[in-house]
Amino acid sequence: MRIKESLGALGDRRFAWYFTARTVSTAGSVMVPVSLAFAVLDIDASAGALAQVLGVRTLAMVVFLLVGGVVADRFSRIVVLQVSHALTFVTQATAATLIISGDATLTQLTVIEGINGAVTAFTMPAMMGIVPLVVDRSRLQEANALLSFSRSGLTVIGPAVAGLLVVGVGPGWALAVNALTYAVAIVCLSRVGLPRAEPGRARRPSMVHELREGWTEFIRREWLWVVVLAFGLLNAIHVGVIGVLGPLIATSTDAIGKAGWGLALSAEAAGTVLMTIVMLRLRLEHPLRAGMLAMCALAVPMVLLGAAPALIPVAIGFFVAGAAVEVFGVGWSTALHEHIPVTVLSRVSSYDALGSFVAMPIGTFLYGWLATTVDVETLILLSAGVYVVIAVLALLSRSVRDLGRSSEEPVDEQRSERVGPTTPAERS
Question: Which is more confidently placed, 268 or 292?
Fold first, then answer.
């Protein structure tokens, strides 16, 4: 596939504006993990403090995910994103102001990030449901790869810049940039051009009924719930090792340091960028088989962090992990877009996110506690081994191994029986 053909999705004005909005908001968001982590550690230099803020944020997101999925399927996904972005602007600007002024407390950051996590529960399902509406089905993998390329390309620079800002002027300025980018993204989303409400959807069933529809679509696909179940465990391990123990080790050893941790995370994004270029030109015939095998590579930076906590080895490990994440990410998004009816896509993705993230608060709090009771290096190495075992076990499902590509639009059988076939106008 030629480069021009790989970029063909940007020829659709709607996708081009959506791509721009995602790129702008991501430009600030990529600095948040580093800046927030060290803002918390400046207030209370303990794993428990960091676990508290990250855990509450994730818990709030998990609690509201199903509601977010219903809202995104019920109303205009563009409007849902704009409202969510406005609330994110307020929360991040508030946190930035408190941190820059030196008045921030652990309780304040916990509450603010809890609100921000709840808002994210509406953002993610809406984003997943927009892509099939703004790009031709034949270009879904290319569109997902372009979005990932934008995100990962910025992530190469973002953590490193955030690390330098933390050392130079403090972590609050990175959060201030993040707030500003969401304001700009709201304007870009207004240019996408989707209708404010789907035609023919004036009379909607109850929220409980719609949740039940989404659950039916989710549970009847073995490949879907098997992978989500696996990621419920994988994400709990990852957030514990990389999100909690990683910054703790970075601050406790001169071999990495705060700025070095930002550079290591940038190396992960560099690996993602490189693999994105490959994904723009390579068609994944069995996206989940390739994705789950690739996920085993995420154990590499964990092993190096536990066995050789030095900047160069850890950065190399993150580079490998970044490439692996891209294989799974593009494959998973494309599988959802090709095999899930667009009318229930946001609800199904909310069940996906709920199952994938539900154990993250547990992992965050658990690793924060374990860091004070067991040897951290041993804990990381054991976690890496368990991570690989879980990823491989998911491939025992034939549905996961053999899921292929689909050129036909999936049919929502329940909705077809109730309202008739979806018209082209309803898909635009």
Answer: 292
